[in-house]
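The records we work with from here on pair a chain with its fold. Taken together, the tokens spell out the fold as the letters spell out the chain. To see the layout at work, look at the sequence and tokens printed below.
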Amino acid sequence: MEKPSRVAAAARIAGLLGIVLFALGPLSVQLGIASPFAGFRIFGLGLLAGLVALVLGVVGLVRTRAATGRPGRASALTGLLLGAVPVACVIVAAGPARDLPAINDITTDPTDPPGFASPGRDYPGEEFEKAQREAYPDLAPIRVARTTDATYAASLSAARGLGWEIVSEDAAAGVIEATDTSEIFRFVDDVVIRVRPDGAGSKVDVRSKSRDGRGDMGANAARIRAFREKLGTSPAP
């Protein structure tokens, strides 16, 4: 009797490992067991194991086809299907961001971006500016037909309404700094809002920057758009 295919057995093990690591990554962060970056690495290992399971599963199915009479086809199929889960999830989640540039510092005014109070977080400059204008042409200074005081108060209300944690507020300078934490991996991104006079109204500029990684899958631009929409519906004080 033919021995069961080792490749098929390995596919099943890799598939099970991929599922466990894929789920364990974000779960460990949510439970406070791992840091966001560590959890993301575990998640990444799950994806890698899933890819390995896919390859081994295909090879295992070939080696256990009916013509060979070799057992282990169920293990190969199980590994292939389990490996497909993390791979498919990542493909679906990353699909909308497939064509976005690998930048993680987005602002409504790349030529004069709002600055953070703490040092070491200067805007990257021309490279990011060009990439941002091509990827997010809708982002521009937000014009508001209110006084700067009213606009500042509305901006503060909008930031809080979005669940951002206010780090500092300076009404005299028209600057608000905040952080926003992602839901799954608890990554913390920094946001600064600047309110300036603009004729009879006000001009609001926002800058959103990720602390980790180079790309952001469009998260910072989406955050600015959410603030812009929220500001438009915030009642005047």
Q: What stands out?
A: The mean pLDDT is 91. The two ends are 82 Å apart (CA to CA). Helices lie at 6-30, 36-63, 73-94, 126-135, 148-161, 219-233.
